Amino acid sequence: SYQRFANCYRDFYRLQPELTRSIYDQFVSQLQASIKEEIQEVKEEGNLEALFNSLDKIVEEAKEQEEPAWRPSGIPEEDVRSAMVPYLLKHRAYLRKVLKEKEEENRKLAEAVLAGRDRIAELQRLIQDRKQAWQ
Q1: How far is CA 124 from each of CA 112, 119, 133, rounded to the nearest angstrom?
Q2: 75-95 burial, b for 16+ CB within 10 Å, e for fewer?
Q3: Is residue 54 domain-shared with residue 89, that is, in the same domain?
Q4: Domain assignment of residue 33, yes or no
Q5: Domain containing 39: what range?
Q6: Same domain, 2 and 56
Q7: Within this chain, do residues 55 and 2 fall inside the same structural domain, yes or no?
Q8: 3 state SS of 26
Q9: How far is 127 from 135, CA to CA, in rounded Å?
Q10: Predicted confidence (pLDDT) per residue in 53-74, tens digit
Q11: Residue by residue, what is the 3-state secondary structure of 62-129?
């Protein structure tokens, strides 16, 4: 404030109060300009304007949401569990589906192997029968 500034320079203020006020005003305006310049540099360096715009968009989208946003419980195991359980359930369903497909494929292959064995046994009997017929 101006009073604090004047108290710091008491002797100068007593001699020339108008000049003290003028110096204070210049000091404040230069400080404000410097701060604005620094803020602008930070905004440009960090691309903050785009980030703030995206943040505003997220806030606007969140206003339409009826249920509260997720917040961590403070217990990491529970927080991870709440995020991982849906993924793991989905993965388990996928693995069960693949397992059923493989079991079906194995069943068909086993039937083909058994049919092949039966055919081989039939051919061996035919060979045996023809061999005995020749003898």
Answers
A1: 18, 8, 14
A2: eeeeeeeeeeeeeeeeeeeee
A3: no
A4: yes
A5: 1-62
A6: yes
A7: yes
A8: helix
A9: 12
A10: 888 888 888 777 777 777 788 8
A11: HHCCCCCCCCCCCCHHHHHHHHHHHHHHHHHHHHHHHHHHHHHHHHHHHHHHHHHHHHHHHHHHHHHH
* Portion of the chain with pLDDT greater than 70, in percent: 100
The answer to whether the CB of 40 falls within 8 A of the CB of 33 is no
Residues 102 and 47 occupy one common structural domain = no
Note whether residue 71 is domain-resident. Answer: no
- Determine the average pLDDT of the residues in 82-101: 93
Tell me whether residue 79 is in a domain.
no
Q: Do the domain assignments include residue 127?
A: yes
Mean pLDDT is highest, among 21-25, 51-55, 107-111, for 107-111
The answer to whether the beta carbons of residues 79 and 72 sit under 8 Å apart is yes
